[in-house]
Amino acid sequence: MAVPEVNKEFLGELEAMGFPVARATRALHFSGNDSLAAAVSWIIDHENDPDIDQMPSITVDIGIESPKPFQISEEMKKKAQELRNRARRRQEEEEKKREREREKNRIRAGKELLEAKRIDEENERKRMLAYWESEKEEQKRAREKLLKKLMEDKAERRSKLGLPPENPASVKTSLPVVLEKNSLFTKLDTKAEPLRECLRFLKKSHKNDDARVKRAFQTLLIYIRNVAKHPDEEKFRKIRFSNPAFQERVGSLTGGIEFLELCGFERTEDGEFLFLPQEKVDMAVLNSAGSVLNSAMTNPFFGVFSS
């Protein structure tokens, strides 16, 4: 198999018009090799052929020489230009299609990354909440153990003094009175300890950046004070996640968002805001939060001795 011989002059004219050698050779060969116009018409009719730019491999020895120079008409030039324009538009459309596909892939990858980050944050929050729940249970057991020890010591002292044991019924009735006297302290302590532990965790997680931790504490205190002073104003109970200042000062620090959630803030369904519903504003919690934050900022040993 060999490349067919075609009219060299026609071939040169087609190349000058911008057609590849293989396409021009194929057009001359299959159009009869006797007319430049016929070759151009063949190219127009077969431009979508998958093998149009493949060199034909049929042995043909035509050996035709043009008896006289062939003049390229304006119409043929227009057709050639139209073919080139059409090919260029097709390439541009294909490139746009590829670019749209690349953009879709970038958007998909971004969404997957955000989802993975959200899942990581959610898992971290669940872990911290579980830790605080276990701490509360431990504190409850410690208080119960202390109360039991106090009752046992009291019974032992009564025995040494020769007094009869207390009537169990009187013990049961007096116990609520004792708890009632300390109910305010117990309530405040129960609310403050998870907040305090959250700030310890934040400080420990960023122990090499004291300035950033202090700025986070100051910003959290501003949020809490604003809600406490203006509980009826929604703008103080709503924080946008994408706010650069919030992200830099609080949102990007481990424990910052969790502290606000302990104060009653909740994520909106669209995940765009932290929002504290007015009916869930608890002044006791806000006061505890403010007290814990003040202690964290003024006490140089805050969090130093925590495990």
TrEMBL record:
A Pfam family per the record: PUB
SUPFAM superfamilies, alphabetized: PUG domain-like (SSF143503), UBA-like (SSF46934)
Residues annotated as domain UBA: 5-46
Sequence segments annotated as region (Disordered): 82-104
Coiled-coil spans in chain: none
Name listed for the protein in its UniProt record: UBA domain-containing protein
